[in-house]
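Continuing the batch. This is chain 6 of the set; chains 1 through 5 are on the previous pages. Same settings as before, nothing changed between runs. Recording input and output for traceability.
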Amino acid sequence: MLRALRREPGFYQKLWALSAPIILQNIITTSLGFADTFMVGLLGNAEMAAVTAANVPVFIIQIVIFGFQSGMAVLVSQYWGRGDVDNINRCMGVALYAVTGFSTVLALVTFFFPSQVLGLITPNQELVALGVRYIQIVGFSYILNGISSIYAGLHRSTEYPKFGMALYGISMCVNTFLNYVLIFGKFGAPAMGVTGAAAATLISRVVEFLAAGAFALRSRRLPLRWRCILRPGKPILHSFIRYSAPVVCNEAMWSVGASMLTVIMGHMSNSQDMLAAYALIGNIDRISTVVCFGIAAAAGVRYLTDNLSTAVIVLAITCILYFVVHPKLKPFLAMLVGGVVMAVVLISFLSASISESDNFRLSRIITWLDPENHTDTGGFQVMQGLYAIGSGGFFGKGLGNSTQKLGVIPEAQNDMILAIVCEELGVFGSIIILLLFSLLLYRLMFIARNAPDLYGSLVATGIFAHIALQVILNVMVVTNTIPTTGITLPFISYGGTSLLFLMVEMGIALGIARKIKIKDA
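Output for chain 6:
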């Protein structure tokens, strides 16, 4: 199996060049619903829960459109290799008929029977009333989106995926701007709330459709042949059904199954809070899914990253959020105890039976157990960090007087910055820094506990968990309590990207804090 991954030079570079625009295109498409949910979430839990429920049929439409694109791609790719522009236009014609018919039927159903459609998702009449106008308007936007998606898919299948990325980038920008204007009533526009989010989505899809149409009419790379598009013929129709029907059925069933979790939550007694909380996790899950679709569309996969520590933090944040919203404590205690027992058993086994390993993760664990005898395979950084902490004493050598940072400790400005702080400012200085972190975490916890809605509370909790985990893991690495891993100390370690995203998180936390209303005793 591994031999199959060995390709000629340049294969994976070309794979990434094809898949990256497709990934971005799919993320942008899914992010339109996410933008609606996020901005509407600022209005309150009820509004966000209503939009989450109303986006279930929208999600199904998106996935089915992707199925039609995939079926078309099989044929178009073959005809593109032959240079057969007429049959490419015929394939597009069949796909346009199928997508337009499907999306039009659903748009009419959601327009004339919005309450009944939403009633299938949630019996909560408050959410149904809020979501009616949204689903009525948004449904029509996907007729236009289906047409532009097929045209973008045509270019994707003919080795020009950047068109779709640019097209949906324009749509995303327009949608986000209009969400801000129409939901909150900015620049003199009326504050339309949930209806404004739907109107913004529809207008952005109109802009997307017009941009695609203008490009199509002027394109010399793939000229339109109207005779072939309007009358594709039975042979192409039969081939299209043969290749697309299994994909469409698979995607339709998968999307319905994936939406069942939202439907189940919508039928719970506390459906409003459950749907509002799921709006955050569910959209992230869907964005992750379309990333996989993008890579699959480029017909290849590569293991692009090897960063376990970041994965551990993401997993821990997810577990903490589930812990916060879950009503029972025992399952988490059982998992925690089981994890500790497994870790103890694993460490005991490694320390007793393995002294060397070619696997760099096992090597880090072995080095952690006995750093003094493994200075040539990873223990040097840890030992020098411990020397720096020990040499600083209680009050340190003075600010700027560290000797270990002068080329002795690897990555002294990054992962091991706390060791330098201890050397220059001593244990006293490090305690002050940890107290400042504790104060920051306390304020984040205060924001999470007093946020005006569940969504804001979970977001603030996620930010709290992220910073707390990074601080704890960094301190444990520097003091050799856990194996070495590349976790930075927030706001102190060198790194522009890390600092940028931390500041974004602080801005989000402050935005939530602004909505807290303290009642006078």
